[in-house]
TrEMBL record:
Gene3D superfamilies: Alkaline Phosphatase, subunit A. The lineage of its organism: Archaea, Methanobacteriati, Methanobacteriota, Stenosarchaea group, Halobacteria. It comes from Natronosalvus rutilus. Residues 160-185 are annotated as: Disordered. This is Uncharacterized protein. Residues 168-177 have a biased composition (Acidic residues).
Amino acid sequence: MKGQRFLDSKWDYCLVLDACRYDVFSEVYDEYLEGTLEKRRSTGSSTPEWASRTFTGDHDIAYFSGNPFINDLGIPLNELKWGASCDYEWTANEHISDVVDVWKHGWDDDLGTVPPDSVAESFAEHRDLVETADRTVLHYMQPHAPYLARGTGQKLKQIQKGIRRQDEADEDEDDGGVLDSLGETVRPKVESTLEGSELAQKAGLWLELDPADLVRNGTRDAAMALYEENLRIALESVAALVPELEGRVVVTADHGEAFGEEGVWEHHIETHIPALMEVPWLVLE
């Protein structure tokens, strides 16, 4: 299986579907898009890992980001007080010429995420950036949870709250004292322990599922059904946008999503199993 070779491949527009598994994509994509599909291996099993290993130089790219980890805040990933703990000293705006924070202005409070149409709308509003950049990336949050049919988005809402708290802390320039320092020391260890627990991983996923579906179908089937629906919603939006794009268009993913394979649920940093590493690479006709 070929590596993703994201930047080395030829494209003018690359549409990134967050947490999109190759196998599910391969079963449904041709109902929406026509092209040549390959299975490729991502550089990471999570967005922070993928981004920090993909964008290592200076790139003239207009990047429309529905994902908060790829942002124009200028805060290194390892200093973020929200989201997964990691050691990556990487910031998007040090490597990407223009990052548009769609996750900020395109957020839907009812859905608890950035819907696909917000990415398309932001693209339409920033044509000037697209015209001056060498290439353009549109990073959709789907099929990543929350599942749009449910409209809860509890996990991403927690990230949004974390962003607000960090912004407020930066404005106050308060060191937070001993308790905050202790929290920053202990938190990564706690998160590491939880991520090693299959039960804890499933508990995180249960926030996004309907209890009745869980009882009736089990965690995997209930989640997979909503995951596929999320993917279809994203593909509908992508298919509507593609006719407006001039040049070579590719659809891919930053990483996949696990539903119990090898005891893993959702996606986690440096967890290199096929469900998380195998992503689609669709060159559109």
